[in-house]
């Protein structure tokens, strides 16, 4: 017999001592008590479609009544709102008119204020300028007073010079007044300046002449140094050329000596060739018809004679060898 087991959650068995699981147990009891338990209603009649339709009709009638009430309320609110809007428009127009008049009043006051401020600023500028001018005039007056005091002091200090000039005029009849003394002084000072200028000009001319002489001296020194350098270069070239001349003269002397030796040797050779030629001609009984200076023909004759002698020598040597062979046999 097979038993079917339901799929139930496994029972959680706490592990450990039971004292530690007490708190968990009480927590589970409190949560079970707080849970809302809803039991099924079995004693209430179930609604039918007619009942539901009647209930819906009753709800619709209630909604129509509420809608009519809301419409009436909306009409009353509309009338109230229109009245309020009309009042607001009237107040807006009044506010615009009052704002325009107030703006005009403000603009006029602003223009008056601007004119007053400009006038006040102009008055302040004039006052400041006049104050500065007054201060400048006060400073000018103070400066003029100081200048006056200084001039009075200078006049007082220069009184001794005036007394001196008057004494000079009284002692020297050529001066009629102190101005003549001053004119004489100015004339002498001008003459002194003229002489000083002339002396300075003469000194400048003298300095220019001295500088020119120094420049010419320096230029001549440089020119002489250049000539000395040129002379040294020419001397060096002269010594070099003289050494080359001496070298070539020595070479020429050596060539002359060599040529003289060669000439002597050539003369000896010529005489030997001529003697040999004459001797060969005499031995062969030939006539001596070759010029003394024609060495080529002489050498040709000598060469032919030598070739004949060589051939004769070879023939003689060959015959001597044959005789030796025959004698041995």
Automatic annotation (TrEMBL):
InterPro entries: CFAP_domain-containing, DUF4200
One Pfam short name: DUF4200
Keyword presence, Coiled coil: yes
Coiled-coil segments on the chain, per record: 106-133, 189-258
Keywords: Coiled coil
Cellular component terms per the entry's GO annotation: cytoskeleton
The keyword Transmembrane is annotated on this UniProt entry: no
Record-annotated DUF4200 domain positions: 55-170
Record's protein name: Coiled-coil domain-containing protein 42 homolog
Organism, as annotated: Spodoptera frugiperda (Fall armyworm)
């Amino acid at each position: 017999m097979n038993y079917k087991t339901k799929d139930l959650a496994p029972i959680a068995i706490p592990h450990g001592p039971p004292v530690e699981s007490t708190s968990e147990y009480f927590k589970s009891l409190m949560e079970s008590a707080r849970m809302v338990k809803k039991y099924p209603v079995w004693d209430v009649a179930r609604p039918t479609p007619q009942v539901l339709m009647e209930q819906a009709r009753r709800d619709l009638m209630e909604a129509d009544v509420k809608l009519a009430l809301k419409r009436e309320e909306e009409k009353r609110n509309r009338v109230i709102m229109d009245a309020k809007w009309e009042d607001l428009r009237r107040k807006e127009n009044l506010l615009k008119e009052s704002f325009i008049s107030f703006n005009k009043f403000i603009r006029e006051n602003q223009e008056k204020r601007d004119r007053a401020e400009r006038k006040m600023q102009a008055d302040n500028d004039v006052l400041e300028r006049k104050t500065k001018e007054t201060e400048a005039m006060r400073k000018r007056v103070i400066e003029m007073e100081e200048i006056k005091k200084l001039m009075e002091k200078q006049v007082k200090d220069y009184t001794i010079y005036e007394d001196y000039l008057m004494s000079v005029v009284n002692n020297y009849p050529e001066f009629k007044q102190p101005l003549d003394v001053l004119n004489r002084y100015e004339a002498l000072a001008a003459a002194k300046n003229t002489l000083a200028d002339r002396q300075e000009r003469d000194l400048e001319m003298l300095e220019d002449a001295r500088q020119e002489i120094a420049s010419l001296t320096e230029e001549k020194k440089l020119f002489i140094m250049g000539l000395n350098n040129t002379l040294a270069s020419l001397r060096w070239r002269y010594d070099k050329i003289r050494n080359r001349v001496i070298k070539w003269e020595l070479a020429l002397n050596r060539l002359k000596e060599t040529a003289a030796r060669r000439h002597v040797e050539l003369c000896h050779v010529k005489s030997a060739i001529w003697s040999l030629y004459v001797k060969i001609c005499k031995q062969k009984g030939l006539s001596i018809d070759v010029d003394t200076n024609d060495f080529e023909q002489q050498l040709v004759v000598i060469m032919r004679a030598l070739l004949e002698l060589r051939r004769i020598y070879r023939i003689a040597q060959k015959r001597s060898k044959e005789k030796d062979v025959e004698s041995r046999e």
